[in-house]
Amino acid sequence: MKFALFLGCNIPVRVSQYELSARAVLDKLGVEVVDIREFKCCGNPIRNTDNRTFVLMAARNLALAEKQGLDMMVLCKCCFGSLKKAVHLMKQNSGLKEEVNAFLAEEGLKYSGTLKVKHFLSVLYHDIGISTLKEKVSRTFKSIKIAPHYGCHALRPSDITEFDDPVAPVLFDELVSATGAQSIDWPLKLECCGAPLLGINDRLSMDLTGKKLADAKRAGADYLCVACPFCQMQFGRVQKMMTASNDINNCLLSILYPQLIGLAMGIGGNALGINMNIPDISSIESFLL
């Protein structure tokens, strides 16, 4: 099994433990990933202001993976949603696809639409399978409740992303359960983390995040689990603010999914970047058998 690994812009410089832990888990599972140095931004930052340039930016990355004959595995859900959106737009509009390819031809590239774009979680769930993941688990979690945060860009619009049921998703819950942890349901499970509002309305952004954390904690969660760098940064940012203001009652630490499954697979905390999480989440290792 082999994929072109798309990291996006933020993971390598701001949430590098996501890349570190994902690579460690994929290596343990025997999944080969190829790094394409020419990959650039997915186009997400301008998708609502300059649609054609957005599609061109996304298509260039898609064409680079196609040139290698590989499907693309994406870690960031914002990147995943953007790349899937570009695929959809070019499929629906042949003229747009031709226009994009005219630009790509200057680099000797062409987007044909033959590759598949998959999120990291989808690869684990559909390509690897829950049963195989469970077979790889050597240190199960016990007596720990995890609140999975699905995020927005993978679930919606569901006819484009094809990730899971946008109203009643189960994929992430089952992946969490594969570690031995109890995946809990909670009222605000599918709500936005608040990150898109940061820099526009900081107070509202922080309030949305704080409400999610409080809601998950009320539902009995010991930890939050995420699989998107923007969500992880947002939860970490608000946790630090809560700690600074002594609002510890609603604090809820978040762990990236490859770190969670990696620990259950017996991979060391340092190899998963556990020490790189802010706030510190090393306490989660005490729940391992």
UniProtKB/TrEMBL annotation:
Q: Which UniProt keywords apply?
A: Oxidoreductase
Residues covered by the Cysteine-rich domain: 4-84, 147-235
The GO terms this record gives for MF are: oxidoreductase activity
Give a yes or no for keyword Transcription in this entry: no
Q: Which domain of life is it from?
A: Bacteria
The answer on whether this UniProt entry bears the keyword Ribosomal protein reads no
Q: What is this protein called?
A: Cysteine-rich domain-containing protein
